[in-house]
């Protein structure tokens, strides 16, 4: 199934759930509301036309400073500001971040039978950073969700043991958030000598 | 758990004697362990020799790759991608660069695709050599390890001839590769493969009918194809269970659809099948490289080498600084051939012609003002490669499975988010299932054949 | 009497070498015990529990089997020293002795004492 | 004041230094990419066994030299410190690779910027990864250090660290 019919089949099946979609650079992408995630995922896995037997990847993106990064002007120290070269023009521009909410959890599915891929974007507010866990459908999601919790602080309801996987226990904060400075260290062992 | 036998049972009836309960021992096979490649901690609940359940703890080599990728610019991320799967670094380079090229919507010339495929496959062979060698060493076959590392040295010399470094190569660039293959690359490549095939045959002979090796590898660490797929396992680990999913065949990229190779598939899904699949894949990778070397389009395309009398580039710059414009008018810069990016005639065949992405050849960079401006714009902080806003996922067949790069760009000089889909992360999440019900000694071959690479697992 | 000198010399030599090693290592490498150093090494982490409590019976069984066949070897040595003089009689005696022990071994093997299950 | 080393003790020190120098039992604390280069150095092509250091011991009790190979993250630092503490004297530490010398280019929340912040280090081998020849050179420097170390474990004073010029 090519990308457009893929998106079409999901849209037709869940009209209420799908809030946006696009196929930029050939990647079929569907933006789904938070409450319908489990249903859509189950449909993706069990529907014979889709048969997404692989949850390839699960991660999150923190869109809080998207496009707000000041473009450094040339020779800013000497006061001469030269605008950097224009972006490479793009005929069908990307429709922008999935929604105004801060986080977007990104699921990549793949079907070995039909050899097609689908990306599911689920916008998540910072205040209610919680989603349904997919470990029931794909056991592989267990560690991926633990890593997303560890790095972004997005919790997953129904996850068997949601605790940090990459960072150590005593670490406060979630390092991949945009507001976590890159070298704020919380060392377990301070300098000895 | 420790049910004490009821006191006072004097005459044990001839029936089954009361089963004395033993308490399960919690053993910590921790990070600093030779079989754990240094950075994995397995807390095993042991009933004597048998592992009842195992809990795997990772993260001991988390170095913040994804955070650093948001700090440096697009080409600055490439040295970090070398250190993801540092046993096959070139595949990570290619994966990341192809993802960013898909984001930019540009394509690289034909020869560059071939160069990338050749070096990726050589890198895959070094990965399998290290994995099989280490597994054999952990089972006591130290000789096989020495032979395999010797073979890897031949291949590293080959990679060093092309990229200049043995392992942390940083060879790829967004929009092309750093330098073309050296002239007459076929000859050293053929010799290295001949040596490597000899070593693989020796190792095959040493291990195939070795009673200890087969007894420990057969029937241990078994996983069914359905479980493997549900955990997201891909690569040789999955192909050993019988499912033949290979990104190079199913979603072909670069020139893999034009190159003849087979995908070895196992049946039982145990350690021996993974060993055999990896040994066969090494042969297939060498076959790909030889086919690619035969079909590769010619390198140097004679572009107008610049009119005028050649002046050494450095001298031209000095003369320009001293204002002696008359001395350099009508001259054309000649860069020393070993200088990176030099060789204007080779440049169009290994790099995209999109001016805003790839550095100009050094002759232009030194020789004329357009080249100088192009180089200046690409090198200055905050400028460099500036792809349009967008998000893209590009899967590549890494040595352990599907290695995907998900890149989100907000149009600025550095990536907004780079996410690596590590293939051995999925295999490690299934490790607790692989280990339970096996003996504690079977953990070593199972963990060896998982081929867990710390840099890729913890990023 | 003279043949016992050989044994005495071996004892003296063995004792001397062992003693020298212990003495040298204690003088050259001074002991600096500390709490962490005396703790058991479990791959860099604190051990969960020292293995008190009951262990699987299998370990004990395997140990006993080993001792049994090791001790049996001890009886072979005197025979092996001058089996030529003992001639056929010695051979048959040792054959019977080995046969009995092998029967025990076959019984243990058959009953699955060697497999771990 | 330490008395003038007499003929006997200096000869004894030299003999002990020589013996220790050529029988290094190394504990390879391998975590990351430098491990690949460590393998290449330890194996037959560059062969660290020529220097007597070819015997890796994976227990701190039996090791003399702790080869810290590869990046040490904050999660790994306590494990490394414990392994170092559990090694028997006389012991030496070799920082193998730039990540152990100064943290390399992983200057972020997760990495220990140089293991000399948590333990004394004898020889630093920079390089990412250092070529096997550099590793062998580092090993020879360690051997010189072991050679002129006194039997009592007293080591020559470390050379002063170059002061950082305030730019």
Structure description:
The complex is a heterotetramer of chains A (193), B (459), C (117) and D (167). Chain A is built from 3 helices and 7 strands; from the N terminus they run αββαββββαβ. Chain A is an alpha/beta fold. Chain A has a single domain (1-67, 93-193), classed as NADH:ubiquinone oxidoreductase Nqo5 subunit (Beta Polymerase, domain 2, 2-Layer Sandwich), CATH 3.30.460.80. In chain A, the strands form 2 sheets. A 5-stranded mixed beta sheet of chain A has the order 1-2-5-4-3. In chain A, strands 6-7 form a two-stranded parallel ribbon. In chain A, strand 6, helix 3 (141-152) and strand 7 form a beta-alpha-beta unit. Chain B is an alpha+beta fold and 459 residues long. Chain B folds into 2 domains: 74-298 and 387-458, Cytochrome-c3 Hydrogenase, chain B (Orthogonal Bundle); 309-379, no CATH class. Chain B is 45% helix and 12% strand. Chain B has helices at residues 65-69, 78-82, 89-104, 110-138, 142-163, 186-208, 211-217, 225-231, 236-239, 247-250, 271-295, 313-321, 325-328, 347-350, 362-367, 369-379, 423-429, 431-435, 443-450, 454-458, and strands at residues 25-29, 41-47, 50-57, 172-173, 176-177, 309-312, 331-334, 390-397, 402-409, 417-421. The longest helix of chain B is centred in the N-terminal third of the chain and has 29 residues, at 110-138. With 117 residues, chain C is an all-alpha fold. Chain C has a single domain, classed as Up-down Bundle (Methane Monooxygenase Hydroxylase, Chain G, domain 1), CATH 1.20.58.1610. Chain C is 71% helix and 0% strand. Chain C is built from 4 helices and no strands. Chain C is flat and about 65 Å long. Chain D is built from 5 helices and 5 strands. Chain D has a single domain, classed as Rossmann fold (3-Layer(aba) Sandwich), CATH 3.40.50.12280. Chain D has helices at 7-21, 34-42, 77-85, 98-101, 132-147, and strands spanning 25-30, 55-56, 65-69, 92-96, 123-125. The longest helix of chain D has 16 residues, at 132-147. Chains A and B meet through strand 3 and helix 3 of A and helix 1, helix 3, helix 8, strand 8 and strand 9 of B.
């Amino acid at each position: 199934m090519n990308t457009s019919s893929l998106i079409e089949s999901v849209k037709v099946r869940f009209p209420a759930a799908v809030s946006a979609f696009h196929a930029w650079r050939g990647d079929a992408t569907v933006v789904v509301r938070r409450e319908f995630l489990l249903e859509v995922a189950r449909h993706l896995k069990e529907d014979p036309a889709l048969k997404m037997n692989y949850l390839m990847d699960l991660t999150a993106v923190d869109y809080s400073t998207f496009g707000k990064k000041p473009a450094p002007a040339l020779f800013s120290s000497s006061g001469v500001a030269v605008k950097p070269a224009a972006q490479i023009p793009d005929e069908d521009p990307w429709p922008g971040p999935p929604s105004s909410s801060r986080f977007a959890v990104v699921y990549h599915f793949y079907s070995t039978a039909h050899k097609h891929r689908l990306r599911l974007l689920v916008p998540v507010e910072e205040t209610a950073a919680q989603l349904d866990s997919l470990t029931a459908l794909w056991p592989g999601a267990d560690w991926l969700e633990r890593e997303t919790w560890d790095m972004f602080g997005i919790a997953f309801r129904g996850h068997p043991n949601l605790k940090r996987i990459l960072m150590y226990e005593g670490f406060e904060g979630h390092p991949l958030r945009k507001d976590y400075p890159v070298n704020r260290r919380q060392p377990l062992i301070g300098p000895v000598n | 758990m420790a049910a004490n036998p009821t006191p006072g049972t004097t005459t044990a009836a001839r029936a089954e004697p009361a089963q004395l309960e033993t308490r399960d021992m919690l053993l910590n096979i921790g990070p600093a362990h030779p079989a754990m490649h240094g950075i994995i901690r397995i807390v095993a609940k042991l009933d004597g020799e048998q592992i009842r359940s195992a809990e795997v703890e990772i993260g001991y080599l988390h170095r913040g790759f994804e955070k650093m990728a948001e700090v440096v610019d697009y080409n600055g991320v490439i040295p970090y991608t070398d250190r993801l799967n540092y046993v096959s670094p070139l595949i990570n380079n290619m994966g990341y660069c192809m993802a960013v090229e898909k984001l930019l919507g540009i394509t690289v010339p034909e020869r560059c695709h071939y160069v990338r495929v050749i070096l990726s496959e050589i890198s895959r062979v070094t990965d399998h050599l290290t994995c099989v060698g280490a597994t054999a060493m952990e089972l006591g076959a130290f000789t096989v390890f020495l032979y395999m590392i010797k073979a890897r040295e031949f291949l590293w010399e080959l990679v060093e001839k092309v990229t200049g470094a043995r392992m942390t190569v940083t060879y790829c660039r967004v929009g092309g590769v750093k330098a073309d293959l050296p002239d007459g690359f076929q000859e050293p490549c053929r010799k290295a493969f001949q040596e490597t095939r000899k070593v693989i045959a020796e190792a095959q002979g040493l291990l195939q009918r070795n009673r200890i090796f087969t007894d420990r590898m057969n029937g241990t660490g078994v996983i069914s194809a359905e479980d493997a797929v549900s955990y997201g396992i891909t690569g040789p680990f999955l192909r050993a269970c019988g499912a033949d999913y290979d990104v190079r065949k199913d979603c072909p990229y670069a020139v893999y659809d034009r190159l003849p190779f087979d995908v070895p598939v196992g049946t039982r899904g145990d350690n021996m099948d993974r060993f055999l699949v990896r040994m066969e894949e090494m042969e297939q990778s060498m076959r790909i490289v030889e086919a690619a070397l035969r079909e590769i389009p010619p390198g140097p395309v004679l572009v107008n080498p610049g009119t005028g009398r050649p002046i050494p580039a450095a001298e031209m710059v000095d003369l320009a600084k001293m204002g002696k414009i008359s001395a350099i008018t009508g001259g054309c810069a000649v860069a020393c051939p070993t200088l990176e990016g030099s060789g204007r005639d080779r440049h169009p065949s290994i790099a995209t012609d999109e001016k805003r992405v790839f550095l100009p050849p050094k002759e232009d960079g030194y020789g004329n003002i357009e080249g100088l401006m192009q180089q200046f714009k690409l090198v200055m902080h905050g400028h460099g490669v500036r792809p349009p806003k967008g998000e893209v996922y590009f899967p590549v067949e890494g040595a352990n499975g599907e290695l995907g790069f998900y890149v989100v760009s907000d149009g600025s000089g550095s990536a907004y988010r780079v996410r690596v889909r590590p293939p051995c992360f999925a295999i490690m999440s299934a490790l607790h299932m692989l280990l339970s019900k096996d003996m504690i000694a079977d953990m070593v071959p199972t963990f060896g054949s998982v081929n867990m690479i710390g840099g890729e697992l913890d990023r | 009497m003279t043949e016992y000198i050989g044994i005495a010399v071996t004892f003296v030599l063995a004792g001397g070498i062992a003693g020298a090693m212990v003495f040298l290592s204690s003088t050259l490498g001074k002991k600096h015990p500390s709490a962490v150093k005396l703790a058991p090494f479990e791959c860099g982490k604190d051990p969960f529990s020292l293995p008190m409590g009951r262990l699987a019976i299998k370990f004990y069984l395997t140990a006993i089997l080993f001792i049994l066949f090791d001790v049996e070897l001890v009886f072979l040595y005197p025979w092996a020293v001058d089996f030529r003089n003992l001639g056929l009689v010695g051979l048959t005696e040792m054959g019977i002795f080995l046969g009995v022990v092998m029967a025990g071994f076959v019984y243990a093997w058959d009953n699955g004492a060697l497999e771990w299950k | 004041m330490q008395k003038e080393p007499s003929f006997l003790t200096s000869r004894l020190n030299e003999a002990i230094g020589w013996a220790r120098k050529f029988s290094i039992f190394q504990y390879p604390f391998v975590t990351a990419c430098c491990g690949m280069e460590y393998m290449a150095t330890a194996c037959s092509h560059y062969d660290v066994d020529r220097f007597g250091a070819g015997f890796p011991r994976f227990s701190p009790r039996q090791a003399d030299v702790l080869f810290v190979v590869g990046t040490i993250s904050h999660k790994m630092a306590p494990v490394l410190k414990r392994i170092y503490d559990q090694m028997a004297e006389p012991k030496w530490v070799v920082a193998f690779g730039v990540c152990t010398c100064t943290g390399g280019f992983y200057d972020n929340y997760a990495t220990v910027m140089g293991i000399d912040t948590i333990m004394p280090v004898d020889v630093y081998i920079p390089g990412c990864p250092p070529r096997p020849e550099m590793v062998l050179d580092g090993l020879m420097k360690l051997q010189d250090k072991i050679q002129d170390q006194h039997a009592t474990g007293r080591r020559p004073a470390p050379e002063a660290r170059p002061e950082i010029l305030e730019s």
